[in-house]
User: Fold these one by one.
Assistant:
Number 1:
Amino acid sequence: MHLSSRRGRQIACCGALLAGFVEARAQSIRVVKFSEGNPFQMGSVTSRRIVHPGLGAKKTTLNYSVSQPGAEFAQHVHDYSDDTILVLQGEVNLRQGDSLRLFRAGEAAFVPTGQIHGTVTAGTGEAIMISFQNPPDLILYTGARDSMKTGAPPKGIITPGAVKFLTFADKNGSFTSPAMGSQRASGAHRRLKASESFRTKVDDDGEQLLFVLQGSLQVRDQSGSHTAGEKDTVFITGPAELEVTGGPGGETRVIQVQAPPSAGAK
């Protein structure tokens, strides 16, 4: 009984060590350079996949779009995903059927699952947008959701008031949260002075991305540090506890997406 008990304790100890090793290995921090983005077409707009399932993403994506005046990102529907669209430059109309709603640089639209939506670039200059879907919509990248390509109207709904229009550029913190309907992810706009830091945590089954709008940043954890420049993205899978520091030479602006939202998000 003594030997059996001792062997049992050894097995339990090895099991705990193995579990700890697996957990440690599960964490991943990757800096995705803008040039690594893969192009995809929707309507008359070519976008880049920055964070996507090909990188192992299971809870969030990040896409980057440059759209010329009058160009349309075709109307489509996400069957199981929420979509959040941020205008970084210029102005666009969110299109739902025949309805157009203008939003401009510094503003965002949160589109719940099942709602028909697309964008049409307004004004005289190009528009730059980023968007994130939670969870990833694998079909989006195949072109099968492109209603301009298929000639068939998207199968979805248009519910008045369902799409939420928000501002993010004037905030230093969250702009989407579970309280306003974003249950699958939270988005934040962070402003950091040179060498200013904030700490963030990614849960065991969570993912987080940090897209550098302006400047540069450094991300540190127990294993080391990672540097990202303008238009780069840091993609993290949990569990992780991180310190994020603004780079030298002026203000750093970051879009932070956490999926699912942290326990304290409201």
Number 2:
Amino acid sequence: MAVAVLCSPKHDNRRQGRDARRFSLPTPSFAAPVTGRELSERCGVINLRIVLCSAILFVSVAPQIAAQSDYQVVAVNDGGTITGSVKWSGGVPKATSVLINKDPEVCDPQGLKKRDLERLVLSANGGVANTVVFLKNITKGKAMDLPEARQSLNQKSCRYEPHVLLVAGNGTVRLRSSDPILHTVHMSGASDYNLPFPFANQSITRTMNRRGLVDLRCNAGHVWMNAEMMVVSHPYYAVTDEDGNFRLTNVPPGDYEIEAWHEGWKVVGQGTLYDVMTQVRVQRPIFSEPVEWTKKVTVSANGTASVNFVISDKRPELASNQ
């Protein structure tokens, strides 16, 4: 079954914590005693000695905030499948890249001098990678089965891998660093951890208590490092592969609204922050807001529905959904 219903795409202006101020780090206060955990989370604004000490103090437990969800897990005996793609149409924007000006022996082993920001990754056939496709109005269905690879982050050659993560609400994200230099994973949005990784092969886990979008950035001077994490309430989410394809399985029969969400591919400014290693002010990119497109889809018992999105660099209202 092919779906060709045009719905109104729109900018995602609901993103939590998404403005230029998120790049301005707070001034630390030492007036009151702080716990090991608080030292760890403040490491983005204090010197490296505290960063190194706080790396030892990760044993404290984050407060548990129950994620509210109306989703119900039920047996799905006649589920269908939704397959499709996200394709690019029209001229391709100029690639956004940043000069690799720190730790080139680790960050730039191939001597390329610049690093692509990976905000718009297109295949030879126009497929758009790293687009999140999900069902918006589903209230019951299969149990959580998000891909394991999307629930773990590695810092390798000064890149976050993968670029887009999917984690269940109240689920665990696993973070590690393969690099022998200081990195941080600074989360903003639905989560606000600021986790230092001063040693190679260090691993940390965190429970994601609040659903929503989480920005991931490095505060250790590697200003090109960026990724996104969605903390979700149900399993009907997929991230498009390198050819722009996606697949949702075991969907209960019914009518749904399906959304394609992209993080946004434009650099709209520069923000200032302190490199926690050198305490020098550095500039890093501020990105445009995410963009989303929605359609209707009908899933029949044991059937397959096809939904294809076509996006472009035009205003989102003018992008075509086919």
Number 3:
Amino acid sequence: METRRVAEQAARVIIDRAGLEPTVGLICGTGFAPCTDVLADPVTIPFEDLPGFRLSAIPDHVNEIDVGTVEDTVVAAVKAKVLPCDGATWEEAGVPARTLAMAGCRTLIYSANSGSMREDVRPGSFLAFTDHINFSGVNPLATEREGGGWDTPYLSMAELYDADLTRKVSEAATASGVPLPTGIAGFWMGPSFETPAEIRLAQMAGCAVSSNSFLPEVMAGYHAGMGVVAFTFVSTMSAGIGPPIDLGRVLELSYRAHDDYRTIIRAAVPVVAAN
């Protein structure tokens, strides 16, 4: 797949349909697609109309992008994810993030769902990423070649998660009533969840949460030129720390957290837009 070409084509559709150029991109976590109702005067674009966009088969994801405003900032919100654990290629998984960059987004606000490895970060809470460890053994940029239309894929990951913006978003969310501590995320490909032994290893390495989403999209967005602020909803404790992970319970907790999620987005957008 020529990711630059399809991202440019999809971006043109978004701008033409919405009549606006977004400056902030949002990718919603599982169960949180309804929270794009924070956008005023939204225009909805189905994935079927966007070149290069694969339809998501993940439960509770909505194959649409909404474009609207939060205060005076134009936001494009992706309401579904396609991931390698569900049969997508790494390139397909990154196309939505790359499209946001081509549409004009300077910053990506990415949200995931995770299990917690920390007793002080319990299910029902949120955590922002300061770094990650990739336990999958696959680099999402490995298929991007020099001369493929993007900057070199041989880029430093030291500043993948914008430290200054992450701190400001954490402070803004907390001041708005939703605590947003920070920590390191561990990535596994999935779709099965991690083993207790894997979690113990990740804890020794300093990880706070475990997830099988986020890596292909945040790395694609960063490679495409966006600053990245990523956070996660903690929907369960990681393997070996709490009861066995149940997807139904994950979704139930996500629904209960919609108001807090909306609060984070309303707090985050003005912060990243001012950057």
Number 4:
Amino acid sequence: MSTQSADDFTAPTDNDILRVEHISKRYGAVTALIDVSLRLQRGEVLGLIGDNGAGKSTLIKILCGFQQPTSGRIILNGEEVTFASVTQARSAGIDVVYQDLALINQLTVYHNMFLNREPVRWPLLRNKVMRKLAQEHLDDMGITTLKSVDVEVASLSGGQRQAIAVARSVYSDAKILLLDEPLAAMGVKEGAIILDLVRELKQQGLSIIIIAHNYGQVLEVCDRVNLLQGGKITYDKYASETSVEALTEMVVAEYRKALEERHRRILQHSGLIEHARRTRHPEPPAEPRLRAERAQHRQPRRLTEDRAESPGRGADERERPAAEHPLDVR
């Protein structure tokens, strides 16, 4: 049984190219995903948002075949599929662009475009063919910010590098593109390049899942938004039916709940420590303590009485009749 509430989720359609049903993932005693259900339509851009550690990257790794789910199933084009590797998922039309991009800075743009899939005329690489195809593909995608495909990737900006990584995945004939934090650590101008590229790919019919933390950018390019919290999807709305304020409030509410839980545990832990201290060192009963205090108050008086009754200067000598005194000269 799904843990997701139907009130906060959109209904499936016949145009869904990908469906994830009741996916869970456990790493020993740690549960990363809990009964996740997700769908993606053809030509749709789906924004997947959530806090760090919510399970977004884990879900992407399962979709691209890098990891296998503990339970649940993946349905692609109406058929259930199982991916044992990234290569198998790529051959089925699902490709991923990770946050680290997996580019080699010392190689040229066109060499990175054909990385691990280079055309070869044994024993030489077909550099002219790769250079020509890379330039044509970048032009078809509308990427016009590169001066040449012969430059090294190390000389490119963050936005240009991200565009190269995306173009490489699209060139592999991907039908579903998974973008893991494509806008991370980018400025406004560089982020605009990627957002324009996502729009262009959407017009070409690609289905895209994009992980992002900037809710404003997500709503700008996405058709629908899913919120992943604590390993499960808790919110699924069309972008036109939600807002940055609503998404922010849900995430902030999660922070408040976590903070309250932390304070409760701290107080509970402090109470246990105090209880253990009292158990090891119990306080004395009230009545013996009062008796001890009274005895302490009486102690100086007893000392005074003892000193007054000491031999040689005691009461017997002072009260002796005058005739019996040794110095009496009468």
